[in-house]
């Protein structure tokens, strides 16, 4: 078992258990709750690489930018990505280290600030569609548009900024992450899908004003590490067909072919379960042997086949 590697993708929202209590002290409570379940898996012998979302945390930084713009400089999206990788990574590595030590296990935990290469000609740059930050009035939106942002009306709820979400094509720190994993270091990396960067004609890389889907970035990482298992930890214990409808049906197992068919039939909501299924399809199509979707509390039980939805090649 010691040779088996799992990539676990946890959502940024899972670090905020109550949206009415986003303060850091409550984020610590949520981080420890998640860390305890991951510690169980490590104690069972798995090598673990953890990725995480950062959507709410990016929103907080953008709001602070707005409130403090008359006093200090604002922060570009790539630096915000780096900020959240550092802060969330710090919380996860401290919580996980403490949870393991409390159970008599000493393991090194390290956060790697991760850049993810995207194609500078990706069509997403011509069609920004990933909402960031909070809702605003039309007048506030017009002020951001004057600063060069793309702003759209969001289903009658107000206006929001949107940025491109290009496809990830390479994890630039993959070799470093691999070296740490081989030396039994628990790695936290590829936060928020990785900081999106492009390569110029000279070969240099530069950050861009975009975001990468966290699950797609995690899938690319899992393939690069040749992971034995890709886990997406989310708000539900299992995947369902006809979710929240009278004929809802929970799934214990899906094959790759079934996942593709259910996705095409519209069973998985865009911006919610659909990107997770797409990321797992990519992982399996590129040689990944197995994936699981479950909630944090279900991780160790899902490894035993007692809960969660397993997605397998055939």
Overall description:
The chain is an alpha/beta fold and 314 residues long. The chain has a single domain (5-115, 171-307), classed as Acetylglutamate kinase-like (Carbamate kinase, 3-Layer(aba) Sandwich), CATH 3.40.1160. Helices cover 37% and strands 24% of the residues. It has an 8-stranded mixed β-sheet with strand order 3-9-2-1-12-16-17-15, sandwiched between helices. Strands 8-4-10-11 form a 4-stranded mixed β-sheet. β10 and β11 form a beta hairpin. α6 (214-224) packs parallel to α8 (273-285) and α7 (256-264) packs antiparallel against α8. The mean pLDDT is 92.
Features:
314 residues, alpha/beta, Carbamate kinase, 9 helices, 17 strands, globular
| Residues in helices, as a percent range | 25-40%
Termini gap: 23 Å
Succession of helices and strands: EHEHHEEEHEEEHEEEHEEEEHHEHE
Figure out the total of helices.
Answer: 9
- Derived from helix and strand composition plus strand pairing, the structural class reads alpha/beta
Assembly level: single chain
Mean pLDDT: 92
| Biggest beta sheet summary | 8 strands, mixed
Beta-strand percentage range: 15-25%
Poorly predicted ranges: none
């Amino acid at each position: 078992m010691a040779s088996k590697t799992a990539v676990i993708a946890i959502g940024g929202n899972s670090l905020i258990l109550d949206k009415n209590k986003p303060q850091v002290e409550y984020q610590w409570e949520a981080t420890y709750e998640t860390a305890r379940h991951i510690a169980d898996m490590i104690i069972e012998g798995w090598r673990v690489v953890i990725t995480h979302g950062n959507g709410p945390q990016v929103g907080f930084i953008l709001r602070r930018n707005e409130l403090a713009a008359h006093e200090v400089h604002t922060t570009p999206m790539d630096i915000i990505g780096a900020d959240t990788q550092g802060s969330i990574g710090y919380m996860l590595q401290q919580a996980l280290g403490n949870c393991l030590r409390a159970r008599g296990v000493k393991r090194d935990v390290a956060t790697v600030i991760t850049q993810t290469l995207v194609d500078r000609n990706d069509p997403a740059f011509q069609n920004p569609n990933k909402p960031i930050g909070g809702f605003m009035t039309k007048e506030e939106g017009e002020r951001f548009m004057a600063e060069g942002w793309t702003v759209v009306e969001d289903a009658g709820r107000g206006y929001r900024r949107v940025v491109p979400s290009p496809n990830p094509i390479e994890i630039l720190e993959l070799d470093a992450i691999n070296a740490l994993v081989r030396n039994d270091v628990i790695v936290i990396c590829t936060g928020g899908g990785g900081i999106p960067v492009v390569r110029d004609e000279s070969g240099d890389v530069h950050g861009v004003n975009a975001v990468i889907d966290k699950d797609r970035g995690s899938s690319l990482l899992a393939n690069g590490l040749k992971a034995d298992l890709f886990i997406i930890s989310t708000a539900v214990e299992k995947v369902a067909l006809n979710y929240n409808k009278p004929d809802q049906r929970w799934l214990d197992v899906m094959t790759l072919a079934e996942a593709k068919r259910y996705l095409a039939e519209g069973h998985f909501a865009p911006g919610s379960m659909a990107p997770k299924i797409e990321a797992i399809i990519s992982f399996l199509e590129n040689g990944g042997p197995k994936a699981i979707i479950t909630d944090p509390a279900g991780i160790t039980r899902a490894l035993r086949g007692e809960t969660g939805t397993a997605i397998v090649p055939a």
